[in-house]
Automatic annotation (TrEMBL):
Subcellular location(s) of the protein: Membrane
Name recorded for this polypeptide: Phosphatase PAP2 family protein
Membrane topology listed for this record: Multi-pass membrane protein
Lineage per the UniProt record: Bacteria, Bacillati, Actinomycetota, Actinomycetes, Kitasatosporales
Cited Pfam families: PAP2_3
The organism of origin for this protein: Streptomyces thinghirensis
Amino acid sequence: MGDATVRTSERLEEGVPHPVTEETGRGPLRRLRAPRRPRLWFEILLIAVSYWTYSLVRNAVPEQRTQALRNADWIWGVEQQLGIAVEQTVNHAVNSVTWLVVGMNYYYATLHFVVTLGVLVWLYRGHPGRYAATRLVLFATTGVALVGYYLYPLAPPRLMNGGHFIDTVMVHETWGSMASGDLKNMSNQYAAMPSMHIGWSVWCGLTIFALASVPWVRVLGLVYPALTLVVIVATANHFWLDAVGGVLCLGFGYLVAAAWYGRLPYALPRTVAARWRAWSPTRA
């Protein structure tokens, strides 16, 4: 009977959400760092305001065309020395297949937002205890990217002088880039480093791979950033090294979240107690 009672107790404990206030202490900082159940209205407002602010700041950065073109030449030269300067070959090869390049143009323009928002919604609904910490990774990644845009203006390959890259949006007259065609005046064309298409897609991929329970969905999580890498290069919107910059920014985002919560977001409990403030070791 004693063994049965212990096993029953263990099963009950597994089904109870564990508030992440296991460390003792009730100070204001401790309460701020404790994951809480996200509120839908607040999250919608926060994401909308944050993206508006990001776009405003990114586009407010001086374009610095001359320096951006000089930096692009330097990046291209470095890649040639490293033997990885194949962006032009990929760009021309994909451009020769109309249906493929048109699909990539729309992929570049839409999935960057659709998939990222989709993962946020999935986290909100299925992993509320991990939502805030994982969202912090995304926000910190994007925030440090703004610093990169300011300090290192960079022209994308399609705008290089004598680079012989093809602007696939212009050639195929598709809507695929805020920096091409009629939309070019709405976006800073010289903010290519780091690539947030890569920063956000790797964030999505790692989150899906770490938390999804269905094997094929986890595989898709890894495929998505890899495919995004091909797209940003094939459409001549980024160099390979822009992607490296995006990954470094993402690493910074994970460091910020780990420092704030004391562990990686995916190691936090899946759920949180509704009344987490009232919890204490004596009431567990």
